[in-house]
Amino acid sequence: MTLSKPVLLSGIQPSGQLTIGHYTGAISNWVKMQEEYDCLFMLADLHTLTVRQDPEQLLERCYDVLALYIACGIDPEKNVLFAQSHVPAHTRLAWILNCFTYLGELNRMTQFKDKSKQHESNINVGLFDYPVLMAADILVYGAHRVPVGEDQKQHLELTRDVALRFNSLYGEIFTIPEPYIPPQGARIMSLQEPTKKMSKSDANQHNYIALLDSEDMIRTKLKRAVTDSGNEIRYDVDAKPGVANLLTLFALTTHQSIAQLEQAYQGSGYGKFKNDLAEAIIEHLRPMRERYYELRADIDKLQDILRSGAETAQARAQRILQRVHDAVGLIPAPF
Fold it and tell me: Which of 139, 35, 144, 136 is nearest to 85 (CA)?
């Protein structure tokens, strides 16, 4: 690893099964970027606690997601893989950043408003303050680039605002991060509600394709995927959002252009199109799934990867955290 490369940080909450949307929109891009960037990829386990989790399931899913990261092509020898909760610098910096973040800024966060409607019985402070912890995740490593979907772009803008505010008071302490939004595949939509983003936390399992779904389950979900009343296979997000979403998935998993797919399935009807898409996804995921099960069986190796990653991440984060302590006048930390 060389620190001369620009730093990139990203992570996914282990709050459910990772979907094909995570793979095509996030992890596959991470794999491409690991040669170009100095990458840190975390299990965003602290962020999951804003919603009540089953402790045993959360623990297992953390290992699941780590194994999937590696199975999808993230090399633990080239990148820092770690659990957010293993690096105390995240929460220590988050408290300091809370003191430089305005209430009005957090009140404008649309994701809080959306999630509050989904979890009306548990509108907790962590859910409201989530963007500040996310800012700490990013700023504590001096990240230059952060891969984000459209739903997280507002949080990154807040991160930039808080970092600029802090720097204006104390000098160039924080690197101001830039977003990286993939040009295609960043928003894979729900199979049953194609105007909504595919989500691993969706209560209806037929809305998403999980990376660990069985082959028969993938076929069933694609067969039931919403299209429209016509039978023309054409990319039109407004008129045919379901078909457009399936074409996007097909293009991403076969490396064909949407125009090529439109031509290939002209006059074919939805049945053949969906069947072929299901088989394409199954074949595309097969090597990853085989590697996943091999990795997941070796819990000692996964724990060693997390231990090594946490040590590296904490050492790097501590350098910036100490600069922050010095800037605001806190006593130098003994560790």
Answer: 136
